[in-house]
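pasting for ref
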Amino acid sequence: MSEILCQWLNQELKVSRTVSPKSFAKAFSTGYLIGEVLHKFELQGDFSEFSESRTSTAKLNNFSRLEPTLHLLGVQFDQNVAQSIITEQPGAATKLLYQLYIALQRKKKSGLTGLEMQTMQPLTNLRLQNMRSEAFRERLKILIPRQTDFNLMRVTYRFQEKYRRMREDVDRVHSEKLERMQKLSEEQRCFNIEKQRLSRRRQNEIMAQIQAAIIQIPKPASNHTLKALEAQKMMKKKKGAEDVANEIKKFEALIKKDLQAKESASKTSVDTTGPMTTDLLNTYSDDDYIKKIQKRLEEDAFAREQREKRRRRLLMDQLIAHEAQEEAYREEQLINRLMRQSQQERRIAVQLMHVRHEKDVLWQNRIFREKQYEERRLKDFQDALDREAALAKQAKIDFEEQILREKEIHEQIAVERAQARYKKHYAVCAEILDQILDLSTKVADYRMLTNNLIPHKMMHDWKELFFNGKPIYEQASIKQIAAKPTEEQLIELEKRDLLDSNDYDDYKNMVGEWALPEEMAENLPPSNNCILGHVLHRLVEKSLPPQVESTEPELLSSSVKGCVLGKTFSGKTTTLKSLQKDFPVKILSIDTLVQEAIQAYHDNEKVSEASSIPQEDRKEDQLTVRAQLGAKSEQLLKKGKSIPDMLLVNIMVNAINGIPVNQNWILDGFPMTLNQAQLLEETLTGCNRYLMEAEGKAAQISTLAVDPTTSKEVPLPSSAFDFVILLDISDNSSLSRMNDVMAEEFSRVISHEDTSEHAAAESQHVDVDPNLRDQIQHRIIGFLDNWPLLEQWFSEPENILIRINAEIDKNSLCQKVKEIFATEIMKKKNKVEKRLEEKEAEKKAASLAEPPPPTPPLPPEPEKEKETHQQRDPSKTPPAKGKPQSETSPGKQESLQDGKGKKGSPKGKPPGGKVQVKKSPVGSTDIPPTPVAPPPPKPGSEEWVYVNEPIPEEIPSFLVPYWELIENSYINTIKTILRHLREDQHEVLKYLYEITTSFQEFLRRPDHKQDFVAQWQADFNSFPDDLWEDEETKAELHQRVNDLRDRLWDICDARKEEAEQERLDIINESWLQDSLGITMNHFFSLMQAELNRFQDTKKLLQDYYRAMERKIPIDDSKRFTRIPLIRLDSKDISENQLRIPLVPRISISPETGVPRPKLKAILKGKIDYSLENVQTNFEADERLVMDTWQQASLAISNMVAAEIHQRLIEEDKENQPAESKEKSPQMSTNKKGKKENEPPKNKKEDKHGKGKSPPVAEAAPVVFTAEEIAEIEKKNELRLRIKEEHLAALQFEEIATQFRLELIKSKALSVLEDLITKVVDIYKLMEKWLGERYLNEMSSVEKLTEVARYHIETATKIQNELYLNQEDFFINGDIKVFPDPPLPKRPPPVEKEEDGTLTIEQLDNLRDQFLDMAPKGAS
């Protein structure tokens, strides 16, 4: 089959590349030839975009463009087929080409072009095909490796081949080297064997010469006697012993002479070479070898001494034996000398020659051995030097390689950190981009729902979610949450809490959606209730345990405290040592302090007896704090653990506490982390910055009442440091400095110095950490990780951070640090002086503010009289002035003005009159009358002094939880209601969109008009051709057209009636009424929350002020006022079962209802009687909202009036017995008091009249002292201030609640009106769609009628289909109801002769003539 396809491709299609069966898979693996084949059949219009390259990108491009064309032809093609073709699997390309061949032949037979085939496809299939193409491209992109991966694989394979060749070369070189070494070892072995053979041969020759030189002396004749034989033997032995002894003495004497000569020569040579060679030999010679030689010499000397002793002992024995036999031997010698003289001389000469030869050989051997020893020592010394040099060179190379490796590791770590930062930033940007896309899609979705009019509140909520990084779309349902919610549910809960908090803030601050409407813009919103805030603050303080304030005076120290930070080898220790030389400053290093603490523990450092505290463990008590910290540190270090930050901070703080107050100190490289900085600052200053910030934020959380005197922000404490210096240095500089230090240490170690210099150098550089090379990368990374947090810590409250570029020379850096330290010293000194001046100024101001001591004894009594007069007038005025408040309480503003005015009047009137009354008895008539005093401060103002009388201990413990319950209940209720309102808004939009879409779909429902049109067209075309011109036929056809038009109009009318009925059904649904009822219930719940808060606050204030007055709290048995809600269902429920009262919806008949102007504006235009019910129901709902608001407002006013009335009744009861006791002493002390009480002639005269009768009867016996009168007046004044403050707080709450209720009422009306407007607009839009569609359908029928009448008049058939679908009418040119008439047959072609050109027939005749004349083609 592949051969057939190759023939088809090469011969018929003539593709650009010749295809053979062997290279079939490879030729089609790129997809280019497949595109060329499709292009030749005019199916691949974008063939110019194809690429012949074999890269993965080109393949992906080619096959992505082929996929839609192959699917259009019906060829089975997906990503698996494409992958098999790309990977050149056998048979894959052949199978695809065969299917393509079949499809192309089918297409060729049909005669359709590619464009025609595409247009024949349905629109939905085209969209689906586009989606499939995109999915195919993505999946194919995943399956096909990238070109970079191919290139990487190619590069990897090339380097693997190169590595393999290099390994082979190395193995070959190694084998050749081994062969050479084996050959050398074999040659050396052969040489040694030959050398041994020559030495044995030479030794054998010498032995042979010695044997040849020995003369055989005949034995003398033996004596006949035994004694003579024994004597001879003894003589021979003695003589041999003497000869041996003499020879040995001579040999030893010669050896001693040689040794002395060599020692003298070696001494002279050693003296000339100098001590340097001796030192080098002593230092670098092989100690083991020398020790062995020395030991061997000592053993030889000891053996020589023992041998000498044995020899002497043997000689002595031999001499004694020799003396005994000397005589016999001499005789025998004398006898035999003459006989053996010639032989003896020859033998002695040979022996002497032999001995001389042996002595020469021994002497030469000794000299040769000494030379060998000397050469060996020199060679060993030279080898040691070479070995040390090679080791030093190799160590240097290793050190340089280590430096390069460290740089590479650092660069790799830097790249990894950069990649991590990039990934982090990329993830953040991707998340932000996803949120932007979600926000965009959400906006697009709601634009469809709201017709491009998104509510501002929704957009604001989406922006809040976007700015807080929360997902816009719902991640999970939170209607049913399990015990352990999922992460998606937790996210949804966070979103809900965020939106609830924002809604509550808008509601509380009256901004955004809860901004004041135009009718309330003139009335400013109520401010904070300062009195209630003060009450709550006092209750909270009483409920908390008392805080003991430190009475120690603040010590002002001029010492400078700082720290120097930076990377390793940035120069911290060096600069601080230089700074310590010029300034009296203490340098503290954490490493040194830890070592000192551990050493103190080892030294068993103990505290003094006076400071020891007796505890159970006596040993632990005796140790100092530093030793105890050192013990803990050592335990952790022995376990292999790091020292925790808290322990390090304790060690550092212990060292700081040991420094004198006025001494400067600087920390070297500490703190290293943010946690250490926080712990150090908290330990030194006693304040936690984060805790104070958290407390400040908690205090700034929106509460219902705030005390302005305590709500001021507490300034953060100053930092524990006066300055922080950062020695900034790059990572490469740090590494280079470390390498320089290590190189210096290495050169110092390997340098050829003497032992004392080396030890001194080591003692000078003990501080260098041996593990520094392994730790440098971790230290740099740790500093880079922790420094951003430390920089923020030292920069935020007070910018005490100073940066210095440390990549300069040592002297300049030290000079900069010294200048900065001197500047900081001057700053601290100026700061301390300024603080001292401020303290002195405060002391002077306090001394000036103190009143002078009361020298005269009498003035206190007039002052008490003033107080009594001041108290009597207020005690009389409030009861009479409180009654009008109860009568006029429904008006919220009038009640406030009346109450405040009446409360201010008693305190404003008495001062002027009382001053004159007090001054007159004393006799000071020269003083002119005082001017009118300014009005007294109002309760809650900044000048008002709050009443802080003691209250029972159990009151705060009850009222504080009660207020927390009030606040939490109020906030949670408001948030819940606002959440429901927010969710209802979404539901309203969705419902309106659903009814609009469903109504549009209902209008677009199919009709059967096309069936009638098709039937009429078939009947029209079926008329015979001869009747088209007949007038009666035309009239019949016109009548049929009219019948068709009437039938189609009837269908249109029926559809219109059905649509109108559908619209009426939608309007008459109960959804709108239910939605309005739910919305009104939400707003009624808001009113109830405000009412509950007011009732609870009133109860709290009542209990608090009654507790200050030492009164029993009133048991309020009345139930709280409840605002009724709207009943949404028709179920009958008894009132006893209802916790909240329900009221039915108010219904207004259309006849009685009068439309308001706003509704007229909403319902303007043509009167739609279907919307009259909506209008009447809205008026009823509006009236119900107004009634509910008036009911809540009236309930609040009644509660305030009842509280004021109750206060007045209690005060009347208290004043009746008090007036009888106060009247007589007042008449006796001051008669002018009556005149002062006469001017206010109001209702209080009746009460004064009632109280006058008892004092008349008891005036004589009752007498009070001045102290008792003053105490009574103070109580009256206190009671008046409590009452005034209580009523002011209550009336302030009344104003705030009334304002909130009015705002809720306005918001409810606006929301209801907005909802009605939206619904009415939707209903009108439905009516508009219905009318437009009806008119369009009618016009389409008219167009159809015109076309039909035209064809009737022209007497022509309608070949193309007439299409009438709903409101669309057109003539479908693609469909013909009857076929076209057949075309006439084409006549056969006739060739004509033109311009002398022969025709085919003439050419055939000419050919025949030529054949006849010359059949073979030759004449």
